[in-house]
Give the backbone structure.
Amino acid sequence: ANFMPALHVGATNLIQRDFDPTVTLECIEGEGVTALWGVPTHFNEILDEGSVSDRDTNDVRMIQYSGSAMPQEVVTRCREQFPDVDFVNAYGTTEIVLGAFLYPEYHDDHLGSIGRAVPNAEVRLVDPDEPRPENTVPQGSEGEILVKTPTCMTEYWKDPEKTDAAIVEGWYR
């Protein structure tokens, strides 16, 4: 989702085999990294790394995260360390790629939200006991997320039962 578009515009991609907050900070400082993508735990570990306050992190303009909600405390601490950062929550899975984005202009007012459906995708919140696209729950209620997007996988390799459990009427659960 990020590697190819960055490559297309001539950006440099730095990919760590295993996450290490010290190596990440060295890359940010030494390579002038402008955008980071990780899970909230990564950013918490970066902020807790002993030398973070002594590092030049002023080039970072975007923090994109996925995997779980970003805690308010981590957002606040990130804004102190990375003063000009925009936050983006990318909601998706390997099976669908991306389903929704919480864009920077809405981020702080809707922290914890997955945001809005990306172009060509639909997102519905449905009754978790009967997770079908037509069984939407009222606004403000809890439910199960269904996503319909042209980037959704066709099936799990040689596992029709798992496919049937994951895809309901063209919607990924």
The first strand starts at residue 35 and ends at 38.
